[in-house]
Amino acid sequence: MMKVLVVGGGGREHALAWKIKSSQHVSWVGIAPGNGGTTHVGENVNIAADDLDGIVNYVQANGVNLTVIGPEAPLAAGLADRFTSEQHLVFGPSAAAARIESDKRFAKDFMQLAGIPTAAYRTFNDHRTAKAWIERRDAPMVVKASGLAAGKGVFVCMTRQEALDAVKKIMEDKAFGAAGSDIIVEDALKGKEISLQVMTDGVDYLVLPPAQDHKRLGEGDTGPNTGGMGAYAPAELMTDTLIESCAKSIIEPTLRTFREMGTPYKGLLYVGLMITDNGPQVLEFNCRFGDPETQAVLPLLGVDLVDLMLVTVTGKLGPMMQALKLKSTDWRMLSRDNYAATVILAAAGYPGSYKKGIPITNIPTDQNNMVVFHAGTKKDQSQNLVTSGGRVLAVTGLANTLKEALYLSYEASEQIEFDGRYFRKDIGHQAQ
Fold first, then answer.
1. Which of 328, 294, 325 is nearest to 312 (CA)?
2. Which of 252, 199, 228 is nearest to 93 (CA)?
3. What CATH number should be reported for the domain whose range is 339-431?
4. What is the DSSP letter of 147?
5. CA dihedral 35, 40, 45, 51 (to 10 degrees)
6. pLDDT over 70 (residue 379)
7. Is the peptide bond before 359 cis (omega within 30 degrees of 0)?
8. Most buried residue, 9, 280, 284, 414, by most Cβ within 10 Å?
9. Where are the domains of the chain?
10. pLDDT grade, residue 432 (50/70/90)?
11. Can you give the pTM of this predicted structure?
12. Which CATH class is domain 2-95?
């Protein structure tokens, strides 16, 4: 039996720990640092996700067999590399491979090198030059901070003035600190967004059920970008034909180019796609499980997640797929024949400033068809549950149809109470 440590403290990490706990191989699950709800599925370990020395020392001292790294920041800082050198099993890419998310300038140049379809772009390290170029461009356009900005550094600008304002916020006001020292300005793609997640050992890969995230704060996909306000899976907009197209034009060239660069990509590769009239194009890559897509996808998995992780980190994914006669795109073979819908309950003011420490009450008990994943929660000194982040809870319903799954998620969301609670009422609207 194995001891598994999940690094991170958000809704994605709660979902990972929840799924890992159900594995036949696992006797103990730790979450570092965890949150107010992860104690229901494992043991919270009081070490910050970015305390690399603390995590490595804990793993060595406590005989942890597998470490699963949730957030992008410790991956970008090289946590996976530290474990590889210490010969512990770790699920997550190296810092060199994680640049696909941590450095958007690198990512766009990588896509150009690999011939991956994506929006035309320019990069800038000076706000005056960026503004001068924008003044000569037609809107809409997208302005992105190049570094990590917790999902908030992307601005879809419908007018030239909005793009100029975005440059000011990122580069002059330094809203995202050093993450905004470089920016990307790219053409705005038209179409529908889909999230495709792939488990890979660097050579072979398996596609997980496709999902659709809802990044904008407001209903009808309006308002500022957030870390994600809800998701559902499987997203039937992503047909088998489209998945096969993505496999050949995006996933395989990505893995091949990483191998050619001498930095094989191992772990979970997230592909953010826009399905355009000209086919799928890449909006972004992430170097880890999506949030909130993970809260919708993992409840659908009908296989042992730890089994998949173990063959991935040991380079045995290909032999397993051969033995089971699995194709890379056979995601239905991994999935239950259900739908999952996740609604995010956010704090008032998110993605801007918001209050913390607000009491949370009336969280329903998890059921076979509904589970509440905690994100921005903690226990106060009296052991009462309070808010501690912008995205507070993720409520996932599971049912035979998407409509039923949404009903279960919204029914539970309506019960939960905390002052200023906000959630979108139209998750899944593009599928209905």
1. 328
2. 199
3. 3.90.600.10
4. S
5. -40
6. yes
7. no
8. 9
9. 2-95, 120-187, 192-242+266-334, 339-431
10. low
11. 0.94
12. alpha beta
